[in-house]
Specification:
The complex is a heterodimer. By secondary structure, chain A is mainly β. Chain A contains no helices and ten strands. Helices cover 0% and strands 51% of the residues of chain A. By secondary structure, chain B is mostly beta strands. Chain B contains no helices and eleven strands. In chain B, the strands form two sheets. In chain B, strands 2, 4, 5, 6, 9, 10 and 11 form a seven-stranded mixed sheet that branches. In chain B, strands 1-3-8-7 form a four-stranded antiparallel sheet, with no helix packed on it. In chain B, a hairpin with a 6-residue loop joins strand 5 and strand 6. Classes of the chains: A mainly beta, B mainly beta. Chains A and B meet through strand 4 and strand 9 of A and strand 5, strand 9 and strand 10 of B.
């Protein structure tokens, strides 16, 4: 999982497999953002889950949020090679759009 | 789609020199941000702004200044560049404050300080 002092995580899976990335956070937040960063580009939001939602789906993406354990997860179903990227979780402790990003998870999907 | 551009895309600077990184957004967003990205540290907030004329310190502001002369433009200034400031810098814009709003990122500027 990613956060705080943890090192950057890396996952390598075969196309068609499911994958889950985890994120734990230290301070209160009302929302968890998940961003994706392709090589050589800036991050882009892919899914956002609020504290009153336990689960959120968008296509092959599924995000969960457990406020009691201060953790979130992002799952990708039937991963494809084009899902290869770095995935970041981010929280908003100040509720003022100052996001705090996790270390990121490098996901590589191979044929 | 939201548009954030950065210039230059690549920059080589000498230690002690002045470096200015520029960011422009055409989204009419009030908020703008400067981050740096280093391996193992994710994205770290340097400075941000809530509108023209305002700048606020982020989590790692030392050695950096920011300027927001207009709604569209936000600059990051390194008055005396040091090798430790070698990094990839991202600018982002976002609309009104409040949890849940998206930040839109530019393509990044690679800075090498020799």
């Amino acid at each position: 999982s990613q956060w705080g002092e943890e090192n950057l995580q890396a996952l390598s899976i075969q196309e068609g497999e499911d994958v889950t990335m985890n994120c734990s956070y230290k301070t209160y937040t009302t929302v968890v953002h998940w961003y994706r960063q392709d090589s050589g580009r800036g991050p882009a939001l892919i899914i956002l889950i609020r504290s009153n939602e336990r689960e959120k789906r968008s296509g092959r993406l599924r995000a969960t949020l457990d406020t009691s354990s201060q953790s979130s997860s992002l799952s990708i179903t039937a991963a494809q090679c084009e899902d290869t990227a770095v995935y970041f979780c981010a929280t908003d402790p100040s509720s003022g759009q100052k996001l705090v990003f996790g270390q990121g998870t490098i996901l590589k999907v191979y044929l | 789609e939201a548009a954030v551009t950065q210039s230059p895309r690549n920059k080589v600077a000498v230690t002690g020199g002045k470096v200015t990184l520029s960011c422009n957004q055409t989204n009419n967003h009030n908020n703008m941000y400067w981050y740096r990205q280093d391996t193992g540290h994710g994205l770290r907030l340097i400075h941000y702004s809530y509108g023209a004329g305002s700048t606020e310190k982020g989590d790692i502001p030392d050695g950096y200044k920011a300027s927001r002369p207009s709604q569209e433009n936000f600059s990051l200034i390194l008055e005396l560049a040091t090798p430790s400031q070698t990094s990839v810098y991202f600018c982002a814009s976002g609309d009104r404050g409040g949890a849940g709003d998206t930040q839109y990122f530019g393509p990044g500027t690679r800075l090498l300080v020799l």
